[in-house]
Amino acid sequence: MKNSHRVAALIPAAGSGTRLGESIPKAFVDIDGVTLLELSAAAARSSGVVDRLVVIVPAELESRAAQLVPDADVVVGGAERSDSVRAGLAAAADADLILVHDAARALTPPTLFAEVVDALSAGHPAVVPGIPVADTLKHVDADGTVLDTPDRAPLRAVQTPQGFDAALLRRAHAGGGDATDDAGLVEAMGVPVRVIAGDHLAFKITTPFDLTTARLLQEARR
Ligand code: CTP
Ligand code: MG
């Protein structure tokens, strides 16, 4: 669908990557010479639906990020992911629609950005990609004893890019709340969030296993 809105993509890349355990912040780790930040920016750009890129990075890597992604606005992030998203929002004042996409989801297909924007253009104010959960999930207590086993059929593992009406996302972040995803803040306002089909390639590179997986997938692609 041709969309007439002005779309900004915010790419939070200001995390340290503690679970990955590399010596540099995660978004600046590379797959075959190309950083996760560059891969994520390239996916957003080549989707054809993004008018403006804003990348949010650690203060000490601001000029490096400007070299890596010269067509993006570069801003400095904060202590929590939500703080970083708020820094990005402040730099995207003119957008009608905002996509928030983790730099760590570096292999996300460009088509997923377009699908999120299509659903926004169809009138959904908040849209997130999600995939059915393959494993059985358990609620456990602090000792690791199972409390119960939820039905996994209605559960979805959600990904990014998450898309929002820009004014809605600004309101959701105005209270300064924290959430591991932006949709969580929008849900808390009582606004419906629509889940569309996600993509396994949009997985978040979190652990060394994920980075190895991403490197093998890129190798297989070539
Ligand atoms: N992020 C951010 N600012 C923060 C924390 C996270 O911009 N203060 C970004 C990360 O750079 C990443 C995305 O949010 O692209 C998802 O976060 P996550 O996968 O948790 O990355 P890290 O916080 O870097 O990793 P960890 O939690 O293992 O330290
Ligand atoms: Mg984190």
Characterise this structure.
This protein is of the alpha/beta class and 222 residues long. It contains 7 helices and 12 strands. The longest helix has 14 residues, at 208-221. The mean pLDDT is 96. Residues 12-19, 26-27, 56, 77-81, 84, 102-104, 204, 206 line the site of cytidine-5'-triphosphate.
Strand content: 15-25%
- Number of beta-strand segments: 12
> What kind of oligomer do you see?
single chain
In total, how many domains does the architecture comprise?
A: 1
Number of helices: 7
In angstroms, what separates the terminal alpha carbons? 30 Å
Q: What about the largest sheet?
A: 8 strands, mixed
Described by the principal axes of the CA atoms, the overall outline is globular
Question: What is the overall pLDDT average?
Answer: 96
How would you classify the helix and strand content by structural class? alpha/beta
CATH topology call: Spore Coat Polysaccharide Biosynthesis Protein SpsA, Chain A
What is the name of the CATH class?
A: Alpha Beta
What is the chain-wise order of helices and strands? EEEHEHEHEHEEEEEHHEH
Radius of gyration: 17 Å
- What's the architecture, going by CATH? Alpha-Beta Complex
Bound molecules: cytidine-5'-triphosphate, magnesium ion
| Assigned CATH superfamily | Spore Coat Polysaccharide Biosynthesis Protein SpsA, Chain A
